[in-house]
């Protein structure tokens, strides 16, 4: 949420040329380090959230045991899905977590939103064009709470001025929080306001609460709140409160902000605006995300020890002000729905809301978010993109899927071939892990699983580190060995925090190629040879890309990697099986809105499928080997948003069909066989609304399946009947 912002025209375009990545990154690091050097007790700490020097000793951290493998809480017949969102400010959820939250609420999930700060900023609630009023932090916080009530009533399909039930929730340590509750039939929303001041006594802010031992932050009393006393939070207090709320509500899905935001150069082309120094996010977003991840780890550890079972939940982390820095990825219909929620949140002074402190955050009303040049409303980005879960076949051809449940890696097996049902999850440990995994099967039939681990998540001047980790079967279909640390392409732990989700591919020569996006927004690789030995990390250069990589092996058994850039799709390719993929000259592809899907055509050419910014219709771009531009195939009747996966499906007696899988405007799974102009998509049975991006396991017409995660933290299998392309 902006502390002070004014709508101004269209979003600025990033103009850093791809060949200047090294300079761009080095400037960013120097500016970040300069910002770190300038930190004092009276200023906000830097974007890194890294280690600080202080003699105080923090309390011991109750963290997930990466070797632990407790069974998970079983799914009971009366257990419904619960989505918990933990954000820094009122409206972070509306800007950055919708439309995902809208879709899950519509699918039947109960929604619980936890707002860590009071959102009081300077206390100025100014309608557009009006004179600047006198600051009143208590009233502004209360007006933003009212705006949230208006927005979520709208999301429930109710009158925006519907009266909510307001009460006080008792928290650990004698703390109290205001809770607002609204029920519409079987659907329910709860808003919980911790109301920690954005600027507390002694100029303490949330970054200090995360980083500096012994710091205390105070709460702000919102006007009209049933909580009337000022309270105190320390680092461990906030962790305990968030972990307690998780244990109390037992969410099946948790939405967090970005714990490790991108480095960002701030200059005339890319003004800092509300960003923290050196990074593309607000200074409060990062510590709230770190507190949330630490609380999840504590909840999992404590609940597992107490119950003998690990809590069952999924996690999605969302980018914040990152939305301003990359091409927009939502089409007008989805942006319009977000705008209606923000219009209800923004309100106006003449609205009959019945709240004397104000009827919303007036700077966000009257169409302001749509006019704002920063364009936050026009995108929704996952911090850890990838398929949920990752399906593979074992050495016998049986369906197996891997995912992250309760921050731990898990394996699901289909109960019997073709049954369409997964058995109970098998806990493989490894946590706490980021939400997405990459799974491959090598030429010996052994399965390998790659994840991004929060190796240290301490705060208070202690460790804060990330690592790529791998788990391998000892023999095909046999037991797994222990988790093995592969590190990251960076020596600096602050750089390591910025690496992306791992993506791997096995090649016919016995190698396994691992790829990650780097802190400098480039590409790096590490390769395991046919003997099982890992080489070192190699940075591959090339243009700046978003996280979310697509990997493909062509008919010559060469590896290709694709990433979405600001200007085009960036492409790396091997020249020979022994070499690393090298940057490929730009084939003239248009700007992508998200990561591309990739598929080999019948004649061996590579085709990419994706949407351009704000376009609901994807297109198939077949790369011409002569380098004179791609052949473009519009994919009508497939409107939606987000990534589109592409896979070949063998058809007896005919050329392979291209199968496309994506998400509709309403967040439901869509499939399409073929690229003909008259081809219509298949809607999923029961209008499946997945958490994250579902995956396709390709095969013949009778063996292909779609695998995804339901809001209740359970996986599903869809084996659609093949159709005849038009």
Automatic annotation (TrEMBL):
PANTHER family: 1D-MYO-INOSITOL 2-ACETAMIDO-2-DEOXY-ALPHA-D-GLUCOPYRANOSIDE DEACETYLASE (PTHR12993:SF26), N-ACETYLGLUCOSAMINYL-PHOSPHATIDYLINOSITOL DE-N-ACETYLASE-RELATED (PTHR12993). Pfam families: PIG-L. It comes from Streptomyces pactum. Keywords: Zinc. This is PIG-L family deacetylase. Coiled coil: none annotated. The lineage of its organism: Bacteria, Bacillati, Actinomycetota, Actinomycetes, Kitasatosporales.
């Amino acid at each position: 949420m902006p502390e002070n912002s004014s709508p101004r025209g269209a979003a600025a375009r990033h103009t850093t040329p791809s060949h200047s990545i090294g300079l761009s990154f080095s400037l960013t690091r120097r500016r970040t380090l300069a910002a770190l050097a300038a930190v004092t007790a009276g200023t906000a700490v830097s974007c890194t959230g890294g280690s600080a020097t202080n003699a105080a000793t923090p309390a011991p951290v109750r963290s997930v045991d990466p070797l632990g493998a407790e069974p998970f809480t079983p799914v009971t017949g009366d257990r419904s899905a619960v989505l918990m969102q933990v954000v820094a400010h009122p409206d972070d959820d509306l800007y950055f977590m919708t439309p995902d939250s809208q879709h899950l609420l519509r699918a039947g999930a109960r929604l619980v939103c936890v707002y860590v700060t009071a959102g009081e900023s300077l206390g100025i609630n100014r309608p557009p064009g009006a004179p600047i009023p006198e600051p009143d932090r208590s009233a502004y916080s209360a007006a933003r709470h009212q705006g949230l009530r208006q927005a979520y009533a709208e999301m429930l399909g109710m009158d925006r001025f519907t009266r909510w039930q307001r009460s006080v929730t008792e928290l650990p340590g004698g703390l109290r929080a205001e809770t607002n509750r609204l029920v519409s039939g079987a659907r329910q929303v709860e808003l919980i306001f911790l109301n920690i001041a954005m600027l507390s006594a002694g100029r303490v802010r949330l970054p200090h609460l995360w980083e500096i031992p012994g710091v205390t932050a105070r709460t702000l009393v919102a006007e009209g709140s049933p909580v009337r006393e000022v309270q105190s939070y320390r680092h461990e207090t906030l962790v305990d409160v968030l972990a307690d709320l998780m244990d109390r509500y037992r969410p099946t899905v948790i939405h967090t902000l970005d714990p490790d935001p991108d480095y960002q150069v701030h200059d005339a082309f890319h003004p800092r605006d509300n960003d923290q120094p050196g990074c593309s996010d607000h200074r409060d977003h990062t510590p709230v995300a770190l507190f949330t991840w630490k609380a999840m780890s504590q909840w999992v550890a404590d609940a597992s020890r107490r119950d003998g079972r690990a809590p069952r939940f999924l996690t999605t982390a969302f980018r914040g002000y990152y939305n301003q820095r990359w091409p927009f990825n939502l089409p007008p219909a989805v942006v319009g729905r977000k705008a209606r929620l923000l219009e209800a949140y923004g309100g106006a002074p003449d609205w009959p809301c019945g709240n004397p402190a104000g009827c919303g955050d007036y700077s966000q009303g009257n169409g302001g978010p749509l006019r704002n040049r920063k364009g936050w409303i026009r995108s929704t980005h996952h911090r850890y993109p990838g398929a949920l879960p990752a399906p593979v076949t074992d050495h016998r051809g049986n369906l197996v899927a891997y995912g992250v449940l309760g921050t731990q890696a898990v394996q699901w097996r289909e109960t019997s071939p073709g049954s369409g049902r997964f058995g109970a999850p098998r806990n493989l440990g490894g946590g706490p892990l980021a939400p997405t995994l990459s799974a491959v099967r090598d030429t010996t039939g052994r399965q390998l699983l790659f994840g991004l681990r929060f190796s240290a998540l301490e705060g208070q001047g202690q460790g804060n580190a990330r690592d790529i980790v791998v788990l391998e079967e000892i023999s095909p279909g046999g037991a797994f060995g222990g988790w093995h640390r592969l590190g990251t392409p960076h020596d600096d732990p602050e750089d390591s925090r910025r690496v992306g989700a791992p993506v791997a591919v096995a090649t016919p020569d016995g190698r396994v190629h691992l790829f990650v996006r780097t802190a400098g927004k480039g590409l790096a690789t590490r390769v395991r040879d046919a003997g099982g030995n890992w080489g070192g990390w190699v940075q591959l250069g090339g243009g700046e890309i978003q996280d979310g990589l697509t990997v493909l092996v062509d008919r010559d058994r060469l590896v290709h990697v694709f990433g979405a850039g600001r200007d085009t799709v960036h492409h790396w390719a091997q020249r020979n099986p022994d070499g690393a993929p090298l940057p490929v000259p730009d084939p003239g592809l248009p700007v992508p809105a998200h990561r591309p899907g990739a598929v080999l055509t019948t004649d061996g050419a590579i085709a990419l499928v994706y949407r351009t910014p704000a376009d609901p219709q994807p297109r198939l771009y077949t790369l011409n080997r002569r380098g004179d531009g791609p052949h473009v195939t519009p994919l009508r009747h497939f409107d939606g948003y987000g990534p589109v996966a592409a896979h070949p499906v063998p058809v007896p007696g005919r050329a392979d069909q291209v199968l496309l899988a994506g998400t509709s405007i309403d967040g439901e799974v869509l499939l399409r066989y073929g690229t003909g102009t008259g081809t219509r998509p298949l809607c999923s049975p029961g209008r499946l609304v997945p958490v994250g991006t579902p995956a396709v396991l390709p095969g013949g017409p009778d063996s292909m399946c779609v695998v995804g995660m339901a809001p209740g933290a359970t996986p599903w299998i869809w084996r659609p009947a093949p159709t005849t392309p038009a």
